[in-house]
Write a structure and sequence with these properties.
The protein is mainly α. The protein has 5 helices and no strands.
């Protein structure tokens, strides 16, 4: 896979999950538990598919490690997102522990730079 092909494959893999971030955060900020649970359910499915696609790609060597780091955060986000989907209250949602995404965020930006993509995760989606 060339870097150009990797860029296309990466955007294809992450966009379904990334598109849910803004409405999810809006529902969270608004305290709209009903909408949040719907979006969490959609996010679980999207994150599973994103992680699977990142895991199965034949990535160029220069991006392989960062792909693995980003893939791992999508896998790691599934259990707490499932907890949000099943939450009985906003207090329960606020009590959910999330994995540290610092390394994945850094890896994502490094990937975007190496693949010639915008630093804005929504660009190209």
């Amino acid at each position: 896979m060339t870097l150009t092909q990797a860029a296309i494959a990466y955007v294809h893999a992450v966009c379904p999950s990334n598109k849910l971030v803004t409405p999810y955060n809006a529902a969270l900020d608004a305290g709209n538990l009903t909408q949040l649970k719907v979006l969490a359910t959609e996010s679980v499915a999207a994150n599973q598919e994103t992680a699977k696609e990142l895991d199965q790609g034949l990535w160029p060597e220069e991006v392989k490690a960062d792909i693995g780091t980003v893939r791992d955060i999508y896998f790691a986000d599934i259990p707490p997102t499932q907890q949000v989907a099943a939450a009985a209250s906003m207090d329960a949602v606020k009590a959910i522990a999330w994995p540290d995404a610092t390394a994945a965020s850094t890896a994502s930006q490094r990937l975007r730079s190496r693949l010639g993509l915008s630093a804005d995760q929504m660009k190209g989606c």
